[in-house]
Amino acid sequence: MKKILTLILISIAMVSLAQKQTSVDLKWYTNMEEAIVESEKNKKPLFLFFTGSDWCGWCIKLQKEVFFKPEFKKWAKENVVLVELDFPKRKTIDENLKKQNRKLAQMLGVRGYPTIWFVNPIREENKINLEKLGTQGYVRGGPKAWISEAERQLNANK
């Protein structure tokens, strides 16, 4: 009986440890300058997530169905630097972030939410240009379908 109880406890501990390892929280930048430094340091493209976090139903659906899933977290950690560019209606954000987010949305022609742009920052003298790699929004089919489309976007420019 003790052996069975011990095996059950070990199994529960292993499952719990596996869940903790796959539920690693991702770092979402809001400041583009910090995200660009990280992108250059790790040689990964920026993943610009234009969202209305407190009002956009499709944004919330995308997060629940894709961004919060272990498959996406693993993929994102290995492949991109995540940047959330929020346009909330009820919660307040810093005025500098509002300006930054509006400027980026205008520069990239964002017309609706959610919109994701994959870009590479390129330093030229005293400014940074963003090389467009691809764009996408909500993709039906969960994390695997979303990641597949993201990879297609990223690989089209290699």
Based on the model shown, name its key terms.
158 residues; alpha/beta; five-stranded mixed beta sheet; 6 helices; 5 strands; globular
Describe the structure.
- It contains 6 helices and 5 strands, in the order H-E-H-E-H-H-E-H-E-E-H.
- With 158 residues, it is an alpha/beta fold.
- It has a 5-stranded mixed sheet with strand order 1-3-2-4-5, sandwiched between helices.
- A hairpin with a 2-residue loop joins strand 4 (115-124) and strand 5.
- The longest helix has 21 residues, at 2-22.
Secondary structure layout plus pairing:
Blueprint: H1 2-22, E1 28-29, H2 32-42, E2 46-51, H3 57-67, H4 70-79, E3 81-86, H5 95-108, E4 115-124, E5 127-136, H6 142-155
Parallel strand pairs: 1-3, 2-3
Antiparallel strand pairs: 2-4, 4-5
Strand-and-helix sequence, N→C? Answer: HEHEHHEHEEH
Major sheet strand order: 1-3-2-4-5
Helix content: 40-55%
Tell me the total number of β-strands.
5
Radius of gyration, rounded? Answer: 19 Å
Could you tell me the strand content as a percent range? 15-25%
Number of helices: 6
- In whole angstroms, how far apart are the ends? 59 Å
Shape: globular
Structural class: alpha/beta
Largest sheet: 5 strands, mixed
Q: Mean pLDDT score, rounded? A: 88
Low-confidence stretches: 5-23
